[in-house]
Write a structure and sequence with these properties.
Blueprint (H helix, E strand, L loop, with lengths): L1 E9 L2 E10 L5 E5 L6 H9 L4 E8 L2 E2 L5 H7 L1 E4 L11 H9 L6 H11 L16 H13 L5 E5 L7 H18 L2 E5 L3 H7 L2 E6 L2 E7 L6 H9 L3
Parallel strand pairs: 3-8, 3-9, 6-7, 7-8
Antiparallel strand pairs: 1-2, 1-4, 4-5, 9-10
Helix pairs in contact: 3-4, 3-5
């Protein structure tokens, strides 16, 4: 995916002020920044949940910035929003089948394929989504996004509210999917250890602009840790 000079916001309130970035095939790019700098707005605009005022978004070379969200999903975008936003009143099975409905093939085969990647969910199929723990909900949200077999996965704060053991499990699971399926990932996250465990590089966003690119190794630098964690990133 290539994003060039992207401008977006909420009504007259501008948030993104010319963002440009690329995510290569099978790559993972992290996005860092303080609250209110445009991280979530970036993902929502790429997914089509917010309109772009100007700029281009290309997926496999095709401009998609005017496409509807469902068309972007069919073209290969998957999205796990901040707070997960599963359907709490539906069972785990129903949450997954809802996402599988738009996928070619039989629902049973598609469900079996998802559960092969997320075996933890098999014992929870009849449990309401709202009755799951935070970590289980995050696994469900990730599995639901992957039901459409995306080429590029947009992840917004996936470690929020989950315990460290689940964080490590997410790193391992997403890393395995990247290697197997050449899945590309655009990751918004404040947990530097999580980004370091997954991302090839990270971008720093300030006031709606990408101002700096960081290598994976730079994410372990103490000065950077103080800048983002010490200042309440």
């Amino acid at each position: 995916m290539e994003v060039e000079s992207l401008v977006a916001g909420y009504g007259r309130i501008g948030v993104l002020n010319g963002v440009s970035l690329t995510v290569g095939d099978g790559a993972c790019v992290g996005v860092l920044g303080h609250n209110g700098m445009g991280k979530t707005t970036l993902l929502k605009t790429v997914m089509g949940l917010l309109p772009a005022s100007s700029g281009t978004i290309r997926l496999d070379g095709r401009p998609i910035e005017r496409w509807r969200t469902n068309a972007r999903a069919r073209a290969g975008l998957g999205y796990v929003p901040q707070g997960r936003q599963i359907f709490p009143g539906l069972s785990v099975r129903e949450n997954l089948l809802f996402a599988i409905a738009a996928r070619p093939g039989t629902p049973r085969a598609a469900l079996d394929a998802v559960l092969a990647d997320f075996p933890e969910l098999a014992r929870l199929l009849d449990r309401p989504g709202g009755a799951l723990s935070g970590g289980e909900q995050q696994l469900l949200a990730l599995a639901r996004a992957l039901c459409g077999r995306p080429k590029l996965l947009l992840l917004d704060e996936p470690t929020e509210g989950i315990q460290p053991s689940i964080v490590q499990a997410l790193i391992a699971r997403i890393g395995a999917l990247r290697r197997r399926d050449r899945l590309a990932v655009l990751l918004v996250e404040q947990n530097l250890d999580f980004i370091h465990g997954l991302a090839d590089r990270a971008l720093l966003i300030q006031r709606g602009r990408i101002v700096r690119e960081l290598s994976r190794e730079a994410l372990t630098e103490p000065a950077l840790m103080r800048e983002f964690i010490g200042a309440g990133a």
